[in-house]
Amino acid sequence: MEEAAAGDNNAGEGSTGEGPEWPTEATGGVPEVAAHGLRGLIDGEGDEVWENRHSHVLRAHRFGRCVLNLNEHLFPLKSSPKKFASSMAMAMAMADDDEKRIAGEIARVLDECRISLAVHSRKIKELSALRSSAGGPFFRAFSRALTPLFDFPRRTVSSERSIRFVSSFAAHRDGRDTATSDAFLEEFLRFLLLAAASAHRAARFRACQIISEIIMRLPDDAEVSDELWDEVLDSMKQRVGDKVPAIRGFAIRALSRFANGGEDSDIVVLFLETLPGETNSEVRKSIVLSLPPSDMTSEAIITSTLDVSESLRKAAYLVLASRFPLPTLSIKQRSIILQRGLLDRSSSVLNECLKMLKDWLTKCCNGDPIVLLRFLDVETYESVGVLVMETLLKNGMVQEHQSIRQHLASSRTSEGIELIEAEVALYWRTLCWHLQSKAQIKGTDAASAMGTEAAIYASEASDNNDLLEAILPATVSAFVDLVKLHLSAGPNHHFTARQLLLLGTMLDFSDLTNRKVASEFVNELLLTPLEFEVDEDGNKIVIGDGISLGGDKEWARAVAELAKKVHASVGEFEAVITGVIKVLAQPCRDRTADFINWMHCLAVTGLLLENINNIWSLKGTGIEPSELLHALLLAGAQQSHTDVQRVAVRCIGLYGLLENRLTGELVTQLRSSFVNGAASVRIMTGKSMLDLLAWHGPQELDKAIGIDISQSNNEKGFISINSLNLMEDTNVGLLDLLYYGLNADNNGELGDADEHESVHSVLAEGFAKILLLSENYPSISTSLHPLVLTRLIKLYFCDETKELQRCISTAFIPTVRSFWPGIYGNSSGSSLIVSKMRKRALLVARFMLQMIQVPLLSKESKEDESNKVNSESHSCSLQMSDDFDDGMEGIAIRIAAEVASFSEKKTSAGKSYMLALSRLATSIQFRASEQHSIKCMRNLLNTMSYLVTGDKDIIKEFNLMATRLKSLDKHPDEEISEDQLATIFGKLGLEWNPSITSATFPPTPAQRSARSAPARRQRVRREVSSSDDNDSAEDNAASVSVAPMTASRISGRSQRASKTAAISKMSTKLRTEFLSDNEEDEESDVTAAAEEEPSSE
Question: Which residues 6+ apart lie within 8 Å of 884 measured at CB?
Fold first, then answer.
């Protein structure tokens, strides 16, 4: 296309290009149709149609035309037979000469049009006049002259010009003779439909290209019958699945004009189904550019912004900008689109996203960035709002807006100052940061430059500083009053107050008066108690996380930033914060504080420990380090309230990270909290101990409490621990204690603070990091690694990993897709490499199946007992299970849906992929309690067996699976409804398509006999599927006799097999017989296709 486009730009200069040359009178006349026609290019069923249409039919029409038009030159019909025959021969010769003359004229016009675009409009009029005057022979001559183009597959400049002219001529409707134009268009389209269905690649390519050009250029008043349009649409829908990417692209382009949400919504559905499985980036780009704006297509277009193709991501943002106005998208969609586009690694995609952002700003927001921020919900997506504002400021797309001073002056009323919106506060904060950073950069440049250049940089820095001062509040007191106003307004204005706090870090506190006012305000913020609610029983419940100041980590960070800005002198920040802690700790020492006071004091302590570099920086402050540890942290960890213990343990961990040498009391308290604490306390203690282990090493922690290093570092394994005297045992090291916690049965319960965390999950994550970074911990013996890995694997397969099983079930198909070569754009290679890659994909698939299968087997007996107990109550009605989606049944249904909807069935890689998935599906065992899943799988087996009809062995396994499922079905005669199937697919996150379970089978010459097949000699080495290990009895039966196939349930294979399939079967059998005993049993069927040509289509 780029080459063709380049040629179009030089069309007026008369440049020539390489392409088909049409024979003219000057070059030796027009050849016969047999030499250059499509008859020699079409194979298969198209041969007969083409021969019949363009040999017998056209000759008959030609003969009749000659009789009607040339009757004055013919002998009367009453003449002798010899005279009549000679007259017919003369008429046919004259008609051929006339047709050759017209074809020569058309070839001459085509030859001129391939040289330059400037003559196209004039030649269209000339050819239209020739069509009107020639009548019937024109189309035959036109098709004769055009056929060389169908044998030239290269896309050169001259060929593209010829295609453009032919399409323009066919779509042009002559106002003087509209009937002839419409008739020619219909006949030409039927001509192209025959070529589009041919087996010749170049013919299909040119036909789809011309059809797409005609459709795009066709005027709205063109008269084309509905039947013909239906044929064109059906043909192009079929070509969407063509193996040639260029043909698929033109077919999609032809259908794009009919893609809408009305009557032809099936085209949009076809596009959406084709897009995920399309391997060619240009075809995916064509699909995205063809999608109309709707709720159904928006998700697919937004997903394309993550595509690996840079041009496709750029096209996705182009479509979003042109067809999806900002209000039509949800808040989440807007945030995702902007975040991906503004952070894209490609500059072209980033520029396209900037154009979209500029269009949104000008067309939907009237150029006001605050209105744009309102569309993004900055309180929920703050990072996206900051990113958008930084981009707008960087590209100069923000006009001057009202400053804070102007807001305070204009909004002051008798009732007070008007509150600031969240979007306005974020706008001011990002604008001030931008101005401050520009002033600092220019100031640095001025300091490093000299002379006039330095003066210019200094002037620019001064201008930015002046503008910043004009925006910020005039005094610190005004700033403090503004923040207090929003704090007193309630939690709905908490976001605005935090933005104003961050804005305060840009104020100037060098003046003593300003610093005093700000210091008092910071002190007030630190002393503000935690907010809480009182439940029905009168218990206090803290609002927020209960760990950070104000119950919010971001709020605590903003307060810390403001405090460090106000108290910027060396040691001043530590002195002020310790002074506040001393005041808050006094009720705790006097034992008059409740748990709210304790948590408030510990939250401020945690803020201090997070913002200092060394614990010894607290020397000489209001509270010494030793006093802070013993009087506050250790005392808090020994409180009776669980939340106080949790916050205190966190602070103890932070304190230990700041120590150069750990204190024994600190480690002892952590061990005590880990052994005796509640679940939430043990979770926090586990995190603290793992952090200290990573920072100081396990030997330092053991050394701090006097444990002999040689005894604690056991080279052979972990020591056995008695939970009864765990604290009294002085030989229990840190690693031994943590490993004991990993093995303890009571550590699987979830904590109160985080519903998704448990002691097991925290410790497992920590030990996994230790194994991953083992080279950083040489003090940990490598002999302990297998023990840790063993425990992690056991923990992975415990009965409580329900969410993990669901995650594996959901990720199964995408994982196998990513590993299988030659599909969905995956790379391939030689047959040896492809074979190895397929073996690896099978190993990954079986490993994932085992990860789900183990916990299910451990529950099988319990489920059988429960089924027996509840069999009577559920005998009349089937209940939908809640856990089939995270079990083996869910994977089986996902596999069946993948096989049924797979789009690359004709390729070598696609066939092997479908066979491998089918074998995996037959190895899956269904539970008797999952009745709906059993009925669903029985329906899907019909489609699967039809798609893999060519493999006799997999059909046998399907028969065995169908028999096994029927025996598990309590009501085998009852059919599952489509609503129930849609519910199952919806719960699995799959798109429901009724055609998946309603496969139609082609007729066969004769029904296969229902009698058992005669006994055959058993092969030397039988191919064993993955289900052989589980069902040895069934496999032994299968090796003797095969279950008969019936047309009602399992598709009967046609007795006519192609020559290629027969040869493939024979070669597979020979290779199987000579496999050595050391090779894997299951690889023969899957890798047999790898011996053939790798999938490069």
Answer: 890, 930, 932, 933, 984, 987
- Do the Cβ atoms of 543 and 533 come closer than 8 Å? yes
Phi then psi for 27, rounded to 5 degrees? Answer: -100, 10
Look at residues 609, 620, 613, 622 and name the one whose alpha carbon lies nearest to residue 649: 609
Under 8 Å between Cβ of 812 and 897: no
CA atoms of 43 and 201, how far apart (whole Å): 10
Closest CA relative to residue 1084, chosen from 953, 896, 907: 953
Q: Is 103 exposed, middle or buried (0-12, 13-18, 19+ CB in 10 A)?
A: buried
User: Mapping DSSP to helix (H, G, I), strand (E, B) and coil, where does residue 414 land?
Assistant: coil
CB 1045 within 8 A of CB 1009: no
Nearest to 303 by CA among 318, 288, 324: 288
Q: How many CB atoms lie within 10 A of CB 730?
A: 11
Asked if 809 contacts 886 with a C-beta cutoff of 8 angstroms, the reply is yes
46 closest CA partner among 196, 235, 147: 196
How far is it, in rounded angstroms, from Cα 463 to Cα 460? 5
Give the Cα separation of 6 and 993 in Å (integer).
44
Token pair listed for 642:
């669980």
Q: Is residue 895 a contact partner of residue 810, using CB atoms and an 8 Å limit?
A: no
Q: Name every residue whose Cβ is closer than 8 Å to that of residue 549 and which is 6 or more positions away in sequence.
A: 526, 555, 556, 559, 603, 604, 606, 607
Q: Which of 750, 670, 747 is nearest to 705 (CA)?
A: 670
Question: What whole-number distance in Å separates Cα of residue 835 and Cα of residue 720?
Answer: 48
d(CA 566, CA 560) in angstroms, rounded, equals 10
CA nearest neighbour of 669 among 713, 701, 696: 701
Closest CA to 897 of 826, 970, 987: 987
* Residues contacting residue 571 through CB under 8 Å, at least 6 positions apart: 617, 620, 621
Runs of H (alpha helix) within 33-80: 33-36, 45-51, 58-69
d(CA 520, CA 513): 11
Q: CB atoms < 10 A from the CB of 804, how many?
A: 16
Q: Are 52 and 22 in contact (CB under 8 A)?
A: no
Could you write out the three-class secondary structure of 439-491? HHHHHHHHHHCCHHHHHHHHHHHHHHHHHHHHHCCCCHHHHHHHHHHHHHCCH
CB 1072 within 8 A of CB 1084: yes
Residue type, 81: P
Cβ burial of 80 (10 Å; 0-12, 13-18, 19+) is exposed
Which residues, including other chains, have CB under 8 Å from residue 814's CB and lie 6 or more apart? none
Nearest to 838 by CA among 857, 849, 852, 822: 822
Mean pLDDT by 10 residues, the chain (1097 residues): 40 40 40 34 36 38 38 38 46 61 84 87 87 80 83 87 89 83 88 90 92 88 83 92 92 88 74 88 93 89 91 94 92 94 92 94 90 92 94 85 64 67 91 90 89 90 86 88 90 92 90 91 93 86 88 93 92 93 92 92 94 89 90 93 94 93 91 89 92 89 78 56 57 82 66 65 87 82 81 68 64 82 80 86 83 51 45 42 66 85 77 86 83 84 78 84 86 81 79 60 38 40 38 36 34 41 46 39 41 38
Give the pairing of strands 416-417 and 412-413: antiparallel
What is the CB neighbour count within 10 angstroms for residue 1066? 10
The DSSP 8-state label assigned to residue 377 in this structure reads T
pTM of the model: 0.66
Closest-CA residue to 658 (of 622, 621, 619, 600): 619
**What is the dihedral angle through the alpha carbons of 658, 659, 665, 671, rounded to the nearest 10 degrees?**
60
199 is written with which tokens?
A: 């087996």
Distance CA 753, CA 287 (A): 47
User: Is residue 842 within 8 Å of 1082, Cβ to Cβ?
Assistant: yes
Give the C-alpha separation, 140 to 960, whole Å.
Answer: 59
